[in-house]
């Protein structure tokens, strides 16, 4: 979830770099985003290390201090990683953008595979979780285009960049809680999950992945698209929202038709979920995907406050709905389906107002 919050740097950097092409007047102040991202990463690592004695014992059962050290180092590297991704997205360097993401994934998988083969146990898997954080360094050494992107400056002072980044990081943190931290939310709002809770958590994870994994990877593409569509960003939402809705509709039908069988086939007969549950959870994943789209449009329009408020509102609403006195399955569906609608509403209202103000 901490790494998820760092994705806010990708979003703000993409917007800042992309918006440079539309400036009418040369800025008097400029900022070096990669340097700011590195400093933020170091600052976050220092905060985590300094506060670790207060919380690490409850979070890490084994290899406590190695886990803390790797978390600090990994977060610092990931802040640079996401900032560089944003810079590449801002200037349409999609080959390097993809190469950076693939390099990150390959490093993690390679370390995990070596851990299995060589029997490194928990220590190896801990290294695998952060090993990809050096991918940015590999690409800087290997790619002249990446080095050129890393030298880019954005308009405005460091304080301006940090204000925008703070809202984006807040929103990305709320997104990480709602998406990656859902099992924690469910545990906090339930007296006892039991076996049913385990099945629901697995079902939520599986129904989200086909939509949210690629959509998260495309954050840079989406923000760049919406920055370019300056005349009417609400209208610019129609095409990507239609694609997501179409894929989602197919997913809902597939989840209801073959989802229960696939779940039992892949994980065993004890993992039983109804067709209705899997279909509704897939619909909830579509709602979060739509929130991701409207959020990208809000960032592109520099509506930082509305962007963060939308994601925080969606996360809070989902958490409150999980407290409803309903069955575990019902309140899970209600929370995950209705919570994102709050955030979507916030984003669309802000985008509409901004469109009327500029139109």
UniProtKB/TrEMBL annotation:
<feature type="transmembrane region" description="Helical">
    <location>
        <begin position="275"/>
        <end position="303"/>
    </location>
</feature>
<dbReference type="InterPro" id="IPR050833">
    <property type="entry name" value="Poly_Biosynth_Transport"/>
</dbReference>
<feature type="transmembrane region" description="Helical">
    <location>
        <begin position="97"/>
        <end position="118"/>
    </location>
</feature>
<dbReference type="GO" id="GO:0005886">
    <property type="term" value="C:plasma membrane"/>
</dbReference>
<feature type="transmembrane region" description="Helical">
    <location>
        <begin position="333"/>
        <end position="351"/>
    </location>
</feature>
<feature type="transmembrane region" description="Helical">
    <location>
        <begin position="36"/>
        <end position="56"/>
    </location>
</feature>
<keyword id="KW-1133">Transmembrane helix</keyword>
<feature type="transmembrane region" description="Helical">
    <location>
        <begin position="165"/>
        <end position="186"/>
    </location>
</feature>
<keyword id="KW-0472">Membrane</keyword>
<feature type="transmembrane region" description="Helical">
    <location>
        <begin position="309"/>
        <end position="326"/>
    </location>
</feature>
<keyword id="KW-0812">Transmembrane</keyword>
<protein>
    <submittedName>
        <fullName>Putative membrane protein</fullName>
    </submittedName>
</protein>
<keyword id="KW-1003">Cell membrane</keyword>
<feature type="transmembrane region" description="Helical">
    <location>
        <begin position="237"/>
        <end position="263"/>
    </location>
</feature>
<feature type="transmembrane region" description="Helical">
    <location>
        <begin position="68"/>
        <end position="91"/>
    </location>
</feature>
<feature type="transmembrane region" description="Helical">
    <location>
        <begin position="198"/>
        <end position="217"/>
    </location>
</feature>
């Amino acid at each position: 979830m901490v790494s998820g919050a760092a994705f806010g740097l990708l979003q703000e950097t993409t917007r800042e770099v992309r918006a440079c092409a539309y400036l009418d007047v040369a800025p008097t102040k400029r900022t070096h985003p990669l340097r700011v991202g590195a400093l933020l990463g170091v600052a976050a690592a220092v905060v985590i290390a300094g506060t670790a004695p207060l919380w690490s014992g409850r979070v890490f059962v084994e290899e406590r201090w190695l886990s803390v050290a790797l978390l600090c180092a990994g977060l610092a590297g990931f802040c640079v990683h996401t900032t560089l991704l944003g810079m590449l997205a801002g200037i349409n360097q999609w080959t390097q953008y993809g190469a950076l993401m693939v390099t990150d994934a390959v490093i993690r998988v390679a370390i995990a595979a070596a851990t299995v083969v060589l029997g490194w146990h928990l220590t190896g898997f801990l290294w695998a979780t952060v090993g990809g954080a050096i991918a940015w360094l590999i690409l800087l050494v290997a790619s002249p285009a990446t080095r050129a992107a890393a030298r880019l400056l954005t308009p405005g002072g460091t304080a301006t960049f940090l204000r925008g980044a703070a809202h984006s990081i807040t929103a990305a943190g709320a997104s990480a809680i709602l998406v990656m931290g859902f099992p924690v939310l469910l545990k906090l709002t339930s007296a006892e999950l039991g076996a049913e809770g385990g099945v629901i958590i697995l079902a939520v994870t599986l129904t989200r992945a086909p939509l949210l994994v690629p959509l998260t990877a495309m954050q840079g593409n989406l923000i760049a698209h919406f920055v370019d569509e300056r005349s009417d960003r609400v209208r610019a939402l129609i095409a990507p929202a239609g694609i997501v809705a179409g894929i989602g509709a197919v997913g809902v039908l597939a989840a209801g038709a073959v989802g229960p069988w696939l779940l039992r086939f892949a994980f065993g007969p004890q993992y039983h979920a109804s067709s209705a549950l899997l279909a509704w959870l897939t619909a909830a994943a579509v709602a979060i995907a739509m929130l991701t789209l409207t959020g990208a449009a809000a960032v592109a329009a520099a509506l930082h406050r509305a962007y963060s408020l939308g994601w925080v509102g969606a996360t809070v609403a989902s958490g409150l709905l999980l407290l409803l006195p309903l069955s575990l399955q019902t309140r899970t569906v209600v929370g995950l389906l209705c919570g994102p609608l709050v955030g979507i509403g916030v984003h669309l209202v802000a985008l509409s107002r901004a469109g009327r103000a500029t139109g």
